[in-house]
Amino acid sequence: MPPDPLAQPLERVIGPTSAKALQRAFGHETVGDLLAHYPRRYAHRGELTDLAALRDGDEVTVVATVRTFTTRGMRARRGSLQEAIITDGRGTLSLTFFNQPWREGQLKPGARGLFAGKVQRYKGAPQLTHPEYQLFGGEGDEVAAVERAEWPIPVYPATGSLPSWRIAKAVEVALDVVPATLDDPVPSRIGNERGLLSYREALERIHRPHEDRDWQSARETLRYQEALVLQAALVRRRDRRRAAHAVPRRPGPLLERLDAALPFELTGDQRAAGEAIAADLAAERPMNRLVQGEVGSGKTLVALRAMLTVAESGGQSVLLAPTEVLAQQHLRSLTRALGPDLAARIRPILLTGKLPAADRKRALLAAASGQSLLVVGTHALFGEKVSFADLGLVVVDEQHRFGVEQRDLLRAKAGESAPHTLVLTATPIPRTVAMTVFGDLDVTTIAELPAGRAPIESFVVPLAERPGWEGRIWARVSEELVEGRQAFVVVPAIDAKELEDPGGLEPDDSHVLVDSAADSRRSGAEIDQNVPPEEPKPLATVVDTLAALRIRPLLTGRRIEALHGRMGGDEKDAVMSAFARGEIDVLVATTVIEVGVDVPNASAMVILDADRFGVSQLHQLRGRVGRGGLPGLALFVTAAPEGTLARERVDAVAATLDGFALAEADLALRHEGDVLGAAQSGRRSRLRLLSAATDGELIASAREDAITIIAADPDLAEHRALDAAIARRVDESAEEFLTRA
Length: 741
What we know:
By secondary structure, the protein is of the alpha/beta class.
């Protein structure tokens, strides 16, 4: 098979300097990487303009001849000013440059060319300051240049050190080395049915459009191609996993004893999830199932029933939790759910990195010997010394907290037979995101909440408009405490110097990325350098909030303590246990309590600087209250002004308790790369033209095509171009993209 022209190293095509700049800025290494750096928008120079018809503020492109060129010193400051007067035979226009005497060598009287810029007035006369221009070499050159002036101008995602125009020049060179025909990742049958362009033509039109409909049709072709490549990668990955052998596991007396002891009926969704999981566990191929459901919907019970099914045949289960606090919480809740008799049979144990040496040794022995059929742990489970007698099931709680390599390390501990895998997430995922990101997993949804869950009232406390409401926040908390209840107060930072989870904070929307100075000039954007930037409001911190609450008159005598990630494991567990026992009235915490913490007596949740958290985080945090039959109260405190994206996030969460509706709102509010974890999984992994928010039908259609292709050609032996596109698009480092959200 001939070498893939898109796999050529960039340095061979555009030179080492430009190649290194693109690699540093965007991770581009090959011609294919660069040509997949699609324009984010297109500018227009405007129609060719008569000089006599110039209007202030217009972006114009004119064909004219240089009449005169002069250089003179400036009166008010050092340096020189260069001015060329150009004419089209009817009117004149001044071109002004500062400290660029070398322009005289180019703009000689009689030189003819194309001049573009924004019209401004100086002493009543029109001028272009630092215009772009292209001089003609002859009549044919002039005709070509005038024609090209009317083409849309690609504007690329850029950086301060690598502006759009430099990227455009690199793309021009790369396009010219690509052959006139390229093997198309989209099979010709599908391309013809959908009326798609060829791959080579689509690349040409998206980077060098002659008119708007060129890049529009190219986008349609390349959007579908992106969907097909990603879905083919997911389907192939899913099928390869299914081809592995797993030990079938079937339910028996252990599960029957658990179900008989439950003090409540399973919900319909829990039963449906259990039936799907039971069918997966009974098969000789490994289960790979995602269970998504609201906070408190009973996902952990569904997982426990699966663990008992595996334990029936002596198999072991591992529950992987993202934090030590959550691992300890899981161990307590699972042991309580099992009851004394089943717990004695299953012998659940804890394995974390901060266990005392003697406890760790006992835990390692219990796992390796098979004495314990349920091991709950954190990242410590990945250690080389951790082994199992018969690992049959891996349960991952909130899998976005773990990398693919880490989970593969755990699966490798199962020996020759692959373990079944069950993933739990309390962050509801819109269908199109689930299809795009979790396409290699079977997805089960638990939308039905168990009976007895109390409603939660949610309110936004808008301090920007209502600063006087701050006192009422703590009066409301005091009212809950008087009723014998408890409260959480969540803040985004530990102290002034340390954020608990910087990755979780949402950026405020006052920052704008500018492609380049030239793009800024073209858009007419101006920055007033005389207005100092507004000082950012300090974030609420554990340290400051704890001190402030302890001296509030309404909270005098109340037991107020802190919980955050900088505390040691034993200290965190002691505080959380004391809170669960009712020995602490108010817990001032960071997002360490976001998932899994279960305190039925906690009825109030106050989130300070709520605009600094994402939609799913706010929903997760709110789910910590209203768990014990008590009505819940959530106060989202924010100084974000109305109309900002930050405020919209907070308002959206307060408006509904429906996590699935919130997931859709989140998808609409957030940038695609944020939703799909670009920061987590590498630059090559983010969606380029495809939108999970708006391209659901296209993604579903591409998935059906991918299933058909892979079913007929599992190794893509007859679809080499598609195989090569997957290799370019989804390399090993980007595999994580396919299993994270």
